[in-house]
Amino acid sequence: MKVLPFLPMLLRRPRPARLSSALIRATALELAILAGHALIYPSGLTPERRASTPPPGTGTGPDAAPGRVTRPADVSAPPTTEGGRPPVVLLHGFIDNRSVFVLLRRSLARHGWRHLESLNYSPLTCDIRTAAELLDRHVEEICARTGHREVDIVGHSLGGLIARYYVQRLGGDRRVRTLVTLGTPHGGTAAAPLAGAHPIVRQMRSGSSLIEELRRPAPDCRTRFISFWSELDRVMLPVETACVDHPDLDAVNVRVSGIGHLALPVHPAVAAAIRQALESDGEATGAPGAASVA
Questions:
Q1: Of the residues 61, 66, 171, 275, which has the maximum number of CB atoms within 10 A of its CB?
Q2: What pTM, to 2 d.p., does this model score?
Q3: 218 Cβ partners below 8 Å, 6+ apart?
Q4: Rounded CA separation 47/17 (Å)
C-alpha cells in the first residue's frame, strides 16, 4: 500500500477525549443526510437517460443487432474522446440508488468530467457475483458508446465490493483504471446482524466465501485501488474493514475524520480528494501508510 502525496491533510485524527463529541456531531450529520436523501431517493429509482452517440464501428449504432452490445475490436487503442479523461461510473450501496451521488456527480461535472454514468442495480439482487457480471456488461457498453477503452469507478459501500469483485475476479482490471471505494467492507463487516437474513448481506460478512475469494492471489492486477474509510463509520465493524489489504493490489487507504458512512459520498472534502485521485496518473509513490482527508 502507498500514500497519495497529493491528498490534503485537512483534519487530524480526533483525540480520545474529544471522540465522543465528534461522534455526536457525525451522528447528527448522518441523520440530516438520511432525511435529505429520503426526499430525493424517488428521483433515482429510474435509470438515467443517456444521449451520447456511439462512435462508428462499436456495435451499438443503428446497424447493430437489437439488445446486443459487441466489444470493441481494438481494446488497446487510446481514448478517442477529447481531453482523455475516462468515463466515471458511480455505483451505489445496499438498498440505495443513483440519487446518493447527486452532489458528487455535480462536483465532477463542474470540474470538467464529461462522461458520468450512474448505474442502478436491483434491490432484489441477492448475489454480488451476479451484480459484478451485470457491471461488466454495463462497462463494455459505456466503452463502446464513448470510445474510451477504460473507465474509473466510484463505489459506495456494497457498490465498491461489487466493483472490486468485477476487477479482481472477472478480469475487469483491463477496463478499470482506478477504483475508488467509499466505506466498502473489503474485509467483511459485523454490523447489522439482523440484516443477515438477506443473502447479499451474508456475503458482506467477514469469513464469507466471497470475502475469502477476494483474498486469493491477484497477480498482475492493473487497477489502482483508493479506499476511503472513516473512523466514525458505524456500518463498518471494525472500521478498518473498509481498508484494502491485499499484497497483490496497488492500494491506498485514505482515512476520513469527523464523518460517518452516509456522509462519504456527499462530503465536499471527500469529493475534492476523489477528484485529485482520478486526476492522478498513478505514477507518484510514497511511503507505506494512509493519507487523511475530511
A1: 275
A2: 0.81
A3: 168, 246, 248, 249
A4: 46
